[in-house]
Write a structure and sequence with these properties.
With 297 residues, this protein is an alpha/beta fold. 41% of the residues lie in helices and 14% in strands. It has 2 domains: 116 residues, Glycogen Phosphorylase B (Rossmann fold, 3-Layer(aba) Sandwich), CATH 3.40.50.2000; 155 residues, 3-Layer(aba) Sandwich (Rossmann fold). 39% of the residues are buried. The model has no long low-confidence stretch (mean pLDDT 95).
Length: 297
Amino acid sequence: WARLLRSLGHTVKISEEYNNENVDCLVALHAYRSASSVDKFRFLYPKRPLVVALTGTDIYKFQASHPEIVLRSMTLADRLVCLHDAVHLDIPKEFKPKLHVCRQFAAPLKGKRQPRSRTFDVCVVGHLREEKDPMRAAYASRSVPKESKLRVTHLGKALDEGWGRQARTEMESNSRYVWRGEVSYAAVRREYRLTHLMVISSVMEGGANVVSEAAVAGVPIVASGIAGNVGLLGADHPGLYKVQDTADLARVLTRCEQDPAFMRELTKRSKQLAKQLTPAKERDAWRKVLAGLKAKR
């Protein structure tokens, strides 16, 4: 976003916390985690523009567990930014006029995709933590037909040793699952080129960037039916499965492997979504966020 805002002609400084700087506008990432910065800026400059970006944890976790903090940040903000089209359904209605959807741009692959021929590859991209339900695709792969060539490749580090143990134990007992740990961005892009599809199995998302990346890469997407995924992919996306339902995910993955027409439809959906994820569209969305906001000194 800093690069994008600079492209719109703004001077941008990035910091983890607002420290009373004399700036024309504050863009705060996280209503909950940036609450103290939001409070300080609004106290010092009650008439200057304040933008708060709502994350998945703000909307689907802290809004319930710490409502007074999240709602105060939302109240103090002049604009609220979110990453998918369904956020308005999960915030109080009085905040909807402030809300702007800014879908995240992702860079396209260079050259054509070339999925592997000997295996039917499913990639999972994301760190191993509770919100990601990271082992769901691995568990689903256990119950696909015996003749299946399905293989799950997981890219992402374990955020604690417990998740690392689970992934290693799964590899020992499940020949269809490979955990590669933390890898470079270039390695992720190579996997998008070689995989047949991507699974995003999260139980909580504010609008995952990996969905944008996969769509722009032309990768078919299978996703848990949470608001953050539905808000990006659409309620009619054929690759949705029931949240944390291993059997339902196995059913969808088996259909992907066995039904070429279904895969063509998922590919088509990714390409359609990609048209909404261009740099120009994200820049225009932010231009609308900032339109009419004027710093008063």
